[in-house]
Amino acid sequence: MSGTLIRVLDKVNLPEDLRKLSIEELYKLSNEVRELIIKKVNSTGGHFAPNLGIVEATVALHYVFNSPVDKFVFDVSHQCYTHKILTGRKEGFTNPECYLKYTGYTAPEETDHDLFKIGHTSTSISLATGLAKGRDLLGGKENVIALIGDGSLTGGEALEGLNNAAVLNSNIIIIVNDNDMSIAENQGGICEHLTELRNTNGEVKNNFFKALGFDYRYIPDGHNIENLIEVFSKIKDSDHPVLVHMHTIKGKGFKPAEENKEPFHWILPNTLDHLGEISSQGVEDYNTITKEYLLKKIEDGTPIVAINAATPGVFGWNKEFRTKMGRHYVDVGIAEQQAVAMASGIAKRGGKVVMGVMSSFVQRTYDQLSQDLALNNSPATILVFWGGISGADATHLCTFDIPLISNIPNIVYLAPTCKEEYLSMLDWSVNQNDHPVVIRVPMEISYSGEADNTDYSILNKFKMVEQGEKVAIIGLGTFFQKGKKVKDILKSEFGINATLINPRFITGLDKNMLNSLKSNHSVVVTLEDGELDGGFGEKISRFYGDSSMKVLNFGSYKEFTDRIPINELYERYHLTNQMIVEDIKKVL
Amino acid sequence: MSGTLIRVLDKVNLPEDLRKLSIEELYKLSNEVRELIIKKVNSTGGHFAPNLGIVEATVALHYVFNSPVDKFVFDVSHQCYTHKILTGRKEGFTNPECYLKYTGYTAPEETDHDLFKIGHTSTSISLATGLAKGRDLLGGKENVIALIGDGSLTGGEALEGLNNAAVLNSNIIIIVNDNDMSIAENQGGICEHLTELRNTNGEVKNNFFKALGFDYRYIPDGHNIENLIEVFSKIKDSDHPVLVHMHTIKGKGFKPAEENKEPFHWILPNTLDHLGEISSQGVEDYNTITKEYLLKKIEDGTPIVAINAATPGVFGWNKEFRTKMGRHYVDVGIAEQQAVAMASGIAKRGGKVVMGVMSSFVQRTYDQLSQDLALNNSPATILVFWGGISGADATHLCTFDIPLISNIPNIVYLAPTCKEEYLSMLDWSVNQNDHPVVIRVPMEISYSGEADNTDYSILNKFKMVEQGEKVAIIGLGTFFQKGKKVKDILKSEFGINATLINPRFITGLDKNMLNSLKSNHSVVVTLEDGELDGGFGEKISRFYGDSSMKVLNFGSYKEFTDRIPINELYERYHLTNQMIVEDIKKVL
Known about the structure:
Two copies of one chain form a homodimer.
Chain A: H1 15-18, H2 23-44, E1 46-47, H3 49-52, H4 55-64, E2 71-74, H5 81-86, H6 91-94, H7 124-138, E3 144-149, H8 156-165, E4 172-178, H9 189-199, H10 208-212, E5 215-219, H11 225-235, E6 241-247, H12 255-259, E7 266-267, H13 286-299, E8 304-308, H14 319-325, E9 329-331, H15 336-348, E10 352-358, H16 359-362, H17 366-374, E11 381-385, H18 401-406, E12 412-414, H19 419-431, E13 437-441, E14 463-466, E15 470-475, H20 480-494, E16 499-502, H21 511-517, E17 521-531, H22 537-543, E18 550-556, H23 566-572, H24 577-587
Helix pairs in contact in A: 2-4, 4-11, 7-8, 15-17, 20-24
């Protein structure tokens, strides 16, 4: 990247360096930053289009405000790459060897310029109200600036935050980065209002933000650095809440992303090298299976609705699928609470509703699962995707859904181990009217090769897959295959013919089967792909507490891990097949 | 109530009967209903002022709309008593013997006129969007009407619901019952905007609801039945989303409540018979202790903030206290997500923040506890009140907070057993900077009589209260006293000198102490005042899974109970002291 050309970036290590630059240099810097982002993200994967859209605005913000004295909070931090480059971390983008040195999110452990570790949406305004309140109590004078996207603005926490920020009576600056997109299309009245605001240069008749009490400013071109600096300079040190609504272009500077935003929100490594190619279709996975099932239900005349909160890509609910679904598809925006409550309402009215949600985001709607759904026994179906131990960022861990969901009364939480079971469970759930049902959809497809004719209305009946003795292995969902392998090792290495059980139900115990194990087993082993604390295995331990049965629970520990390779986590949690076998041997 | 006077109510059993009445009779009916509510609620306790405020509006709604074909959703259902009286359940108010026959909330098991069991706020709009979507899919034609109070409107779920309702493109009617009060005063930009709307007869310049896309109607006097009927008749069968903003008076028709709304939001039995009397002050409880502590911290110059989400009454944070706290007090409105995130922000900025929340409502903010608070290790203090098994309504159970909170990494959840411990924990928490801390405040005060000088920064150290043998009893928080009694019975009846442990920490195990028990104990008993599934005891069971130690976990089952007397629940859960002893005997 260096060579003979002189980069403006070479003169910039920290925000203060920006203030020595001319406007022309700031534009040049923005272009350099944009190129770095394109190259780096294409190499490592990551949030692409959101970051391209906010380069100039970030440059202008750091030019005007004085970070880290002034405090920035980046909502969801999908758009913090320029901020990272300008706050001492540019090597993470200039030097391929440092590409993985910094996280893709704001991270206080990296620098004082980051206040919070953030990866879930809609939190920035609320966090900023706290920073502002703390400042006022302690007699500080700094600016508190919350950035938030138009998509994130539809989340309940953001709206609660707006309601409170508006009456703070002191400095708080909210920057709405409006690129007219959520991850997919935007949804709802607020989004339509933002369109009106853009179309009227901020002069619409009923202004949502003014109604709430904000001093509202509109920036029609969020890539015009002079305008940005002008507006930011005016509101700097404001003594009251200000809301800046700036229009930016998601994917700015990379044509294919500007023209087709959704697939470029987040990209896999090397995506840009294969733009002409058709993505590999035709490979069956749980996404394709689910989509086929839903489309078939429409043909059957079933009043089915597929619902989700702004993350259709997680389940492969692409444009083609959404178009086919038509009025049978609902995206509520970034609003998981709304999604669950709406699902409950649809089910109450006789609709057949299937909601998709990523494990990490189901956390955003606990009370609705409990009160709107479970307490009312609404027969909706929720599919939890990506549940399990992974090398993900600390903000996107998917190990907590079992403790979260399975301890709520009335919910039937199911863990299929193969395609046949999944389809059988899904179809049972859609056709029944008695229970809220959640299904933990595995990441990787597998097949049992035989039809599953189980009547799932008989709750909490575990499946005895192979009856053995001494050791009983209960392999839940995605860890059933691991149970099988452990059984094989016990057989081949120690001649133990272990029992293998597929529990299928996460939310209840098959007491008959568990009791029957007492006669010829001394150890029960549980395997679950998620947090042990509050999870499935502990319930088995409790069950056997008054007996002499030994119980070993395997799963992940209660901790936030941050991009730790999965193999390392398996070692840490004693989850390799060999380690499990060794632990079993110790208690035999 | 009957006697010689002829009541209009005698002619009314179901909504259809209203349509035979004259306007004059509707007013007379409203007065009769109001009198019944005053008498009944004074006898049983319950939500008082909210119900008095919506009598005429409910009469008018049932006059115009055709329930149960048309579908009403009452937010939080604190205001459904008139609805109950008009939908076949008037005996619950006319006949003292039936006073407890019906719940204080909407309840589908009682009638088809109730769609959902509701007791948490801010859910009605979202649930209604589901009913409307289901109707549209199934080809129905009915009206879907969501009622919501101005206070409830500040909750994230309600705002997510508004955003989605606005773009439904079909019939949905939202009635904002604006009585200018939440439980305490209203908070935030929306509330100030509603005031503007009332002051301008709905003609303010920037209309929040119109900005979202609603067809907005204003009713200045929500007790004027003619006006109500006129507006409701016009919008009936609307083919698009309509929002009716009606101004009502909380406590209407009962002067003391009209003049001093907060203490009459919910009343204890016989409150109205003792209006002149000063409430019993001077009795120490955890509310007074907490308030004293917080006020003293202000005097110390600590930058302390007490924060809560619209329920200051739960912790006795009355007007006097709030005034004394001044800028050290924040009520974020009904917005628990905002409260937790704001607390995290305050703590990050160096403020010392103590948030109060009722156990049942902490459910409304799981993701913020996890992402905004725990992941960021923000040293805020959260006090969970009312946690424990109770005879409460199904919507207000307080048994789920331990599974909910204790399985989130990084949080230190503490369970004091007496005043001394509570104050010591609270003070430690406020002074430290390393952990998010939650304290489960007991309902009933007790004293150990000795100062607690524990250093709580040494995490997960259980307290060995009495070293014995054979049986070890671990009594958590409010159930420590129960553990003591069980120990006494074991001694007196069976001569067993049991060990007694006060764990104090809910979120981690004292492995050294638990291991040391193995040498001379064969049974460990855990007692917790909350749900067993995902709770504290199961972690002890897991710990001993590879040993020969027997473990018995006592607590409540995973279920929604509905106004079951606590003694009955204790029997059901084997939680009487005698039953616990018997269960222990069985495994000895």
